[in-house]
């Protein structure tokens, strides 16, 4: 058996503790899978005396990153501290010191993938990041290895478990966003500050990484248009259900007219679609490849042990030597690997759901239809329920359009929002068909 | 760029034609993914003049396997002819000649995996077989690489698209087995002789391969207990629906009491379960790993291009050098890789659905309940519909049991089948909860 693969963890929060636990408790199994021992030599932490969810021999705990960097028996640094400032320094220093890097840090890769991968190429070392997207779901390997005969043409993914938990609760039990969020927080599925989860930022980071692998697209997360789930109302979930759809927060990227369109947004998905069936905090990624057709990968998107499963799979791949070979050919975040350019969101074609609150008065429907027609948008279906008797308030008018350019649809909505019969701003979602 | 990887195909039916098409039409893409060219040098066929779904340069068509075996620029032989006799010779000769082997042949591996893998180890060559299980779904890599930090504890899989197509049609449209089969044949989803698909043999071959990777179990396909779908009646599908379940033909293997239980059988799956949502000819594999938890992989289980996607992924892995490393550490079908032993099916614990046709006469229900009680089996729910007025015929009695040993359940059913009030043999399915 070859020499042990020496490992140092930097950061020992939830994920780090899970990785340490797995390395320490399943060393025989992991050695068998890797063809050599995986030896945890150092765990670099800020506070050596903090209580952690895993018991670590005090000999391997250290506050000094240099202990790990200068240990010639350490081959891999696992950056599990999160954040983008210190974490980036740790990764770049590790590479410069000749260490491979395993990271679960989506924000770091989405922000600084180019710089990090260039540094790795210069140092002739490998960066692995299976855990950075969709936790325990091996989607990085699926894209970079398993489906390598394909040009991926579309990615549709549920990449944020918190949002999916909230939307599932709203859809299945008819509760409001605020109540569903409160429950998610009580159950530990949402952070005290859930902003990055529910506003689509987290999913945008992960989408940026997937789009790099699948399309060679380098899109900074802030360049990815995103809409969160905070504004979703119970009434639209009800209408979606009536129409045979479910609203899911999707991270989507697809080839359109030689470019790649990408966004994160609540999308109406047909109830019979596999993505509609993904419940609770699970993640799922639906890929279409030009050779294989449609495939789906699903599993836990976060959590201590699912994420540790992916980090340790990367360690095994490094020990076996697979990861280095994939790194060499994949040419991620490089000039040679550059692929598609990004389609401006205005040009993206989609079907749309449009819900208006309209005063029940002559001519209002005609005005709405005219605004759409002026942008060349045709209506696929339209439902206006009767106002409750004796009620002169606005009633919901729900329109499903045929395919239209996003820019033209937005222009029509702008006009509609100014019509005198329209009582509150239009609500709209793209519809996946 | 390294030298080209030289490839010969043996067999050019549906899958072979798909592979040839992909290699010829996407050579630039594949070279980029593999870091070197994939060069199709020979296609060995029985009849050089037969019309094929792909146009091949006549210079590469040959009837002589030796042309491929003696070409020093051929590194890989793709065995895509099917069958277990000649195919086995081709594989063993190829290995002996120093060629790597890629095969889509599930029956061959399930039958002769041990012999083939020993031959490969002796020749220091690699055997790849992603396409042998679940067509385009990269489940071999998921088990052997992506989830390598895990001990898999359970596999539940829809591995036969024909059966799933038929069951979907029966469940969604209430039609009978014979009608659904006829439709599947008309649409090309079922062979003229569908026996191996609908009797569970095909799924058992695939399960034997998955169980070898996940559990180190060497189970010959004929040792795997299997029940097909030919006997499934519309009435049981209706009752399943009423109870909140769907009947799926599942290939299952799971760790129980230090052993592995495995079988292929129609199983009642809860409607909210992801496997219940798998429609038509798709395949899906749900894996539970002790670290990651529950994951699901879904995609097209057969077809020219999906299967070609997996064959060519193997070729790319060989070109890159990943496949050789996985082969070395995985130790499949070897003494060192031997793992769990197989649990006798009698000992397997499950919940059961039991449907009896009972004469509505005093004491008959008591007799049935006593037969179950005598085997220590307790009843979870029981439904007996009233007989239509004036009808003295047998009425269906549907019982759901709590967990019980299969052997004891079968003993109880034997007794029940002999009761005077029972009008036809009991129908039973395991229930997945």
Q: Major beta sheet of chain A, specifics?
A: 11 strands, mixed
Name the CATH architecture of the largest domain in chain A. 2-Layer Sandwich
Cα radius of gyration of chain A in angstroms: 24 Å
N- to C-terminal separation of chain A? Answer: 53 Å
CATH class of the largest domain in chain A: Alpha Beta
Determine the strand fraction of chain A and express it as a percent band: 25-35%
User: Quick check: average pLDDT of chain A?
Assistant: 94
Specify the CATH homologous superfamily of the largest domain in chain A.
Answer: Dihydrodipicolinate Reductase, domain 2
Count of separate DSSP helical elements of chain A = 15
Quick structural gist:
In chain A, 38% of the residues lie in helices and 25% in strands. By secondary structure, chain A is an alpha/beta fold.
